[in-house]
Amino acid sequence: MILDGFRRALEMLFSLDPDVWGPVWVSLRVACISTVLAALVALPLGLAIGLGRFAGRRVVVSLMNTLLALPTVLVGLVLYGLLSRSGPLGALGILYTPTAMVIGQSVLALPMICAFTVASVERSDPRIRLSMLSLGAGRFRSSMAVALESRAALAAALAAGFGRVFSEVGVAMMVGGNIKGYTRNITTGIAFETGKGEFALGVALGLVLLVVALGVNFAVGYWNYRGGRRQ
Q1: Is residue 32 in a domain?
Q2: 116 with 160: CB under 8 angstroms?
Q3: Does residue 220 belong to any structural domain of this protein?
């Protein structure tokens, strides 16, 4: 049964079966947008926390690290309550849409990217920022110098954030609704199809998920390798 499932899964992949590739494009589109939106907030916030010295800083870092374990179903539940018709944001009418999925997955990716950014900045050479400040650079330019020096770790943070949302199922199922051709992505498709006994389709979607995750990590590793050689 397993071998037959893999054989049929490969046939579906190479025949460009829309039941396979439709959820793939939904996953890629939603995960990429979510990661970008989360990074726009998480990277500056992580730099500010990592380079800042203020009262309660350790509490903030501990809270950010705790949010790494934020359950996806909890985020989905809260967001569902906000976006449902009886919720405070129900008038927006975005429940069971890709927009709702993007919002939920951005919430999931933000603490991971931020925590990784804080960790990478804390491990950077403190002399970089001190040298920039002594040469007359402001806080912004000195922070950008640290970010540039830590670009390999920041790229890994973005990859981790992408992987977090690309492989999650709770938010996508609860606020996306698993609507075929609209909000069904790879993970909800796997859960739905295997529940129906469509083992081959579930395997096909799982293979694509693994290939995409491998491709992202390979791209980050290759970019870091090229950056190291140029230095």
Answers
A1: yes
A2: yes
A3: no
Looking at the domain assignment, is residue 229 inside a domain? no
Give the C-alpha separation, 94 to 84, whole Å.
9
**Higher model confidence: residue 124 or residue 74?**
74
* CATH number assigned to the domain comprising residue 56: 1.10.3720.10
Amino acid 49 reads I
Q: What does the alpha-carbon distance between residue 231 and residue 120 come to, in Å, rounded to a whole number?
A: 19
| Helix pair angle (199-230, 186-195), 10° resolution | 160
Please check whether residue 73 lies inside any domain of the structure. yes
The 8-class DSSP code of residue 101 comes to H
Residue-wise pLDDT tens digits, 115-169: 999 988 888 766 666 676 666 666 767 777 777 788 888 888 999 999 999 999 9
Closest CA to 211 of 59, 86, 50, 24: 24
- Tell me the C-alpha distance between 176 and 95, whole Å: 7
* R_g of the chain computed on alpha carbons: 20
Tokens of 91: 């008038």
Q: Where are the alpha helices (DSSP H) in the chain?
A: 2-14, 18-51, 57-66, 72-83, 98-122, 126-134, 139-149, 151-166, 170-176, 186-195, 199-230
Q: Which of 56-60, 86-90, 127-131, 219-223 has the highest mean pLDDT?
A: 86-90
The pTM assigned to this predicted structure is 0.87
- SS3 for 196? coil
pLDDT of 174 higher than 90:
yes
How many domains are contained in the chain? 1
Q: Note down the domain range covering 163.
A: 25-196
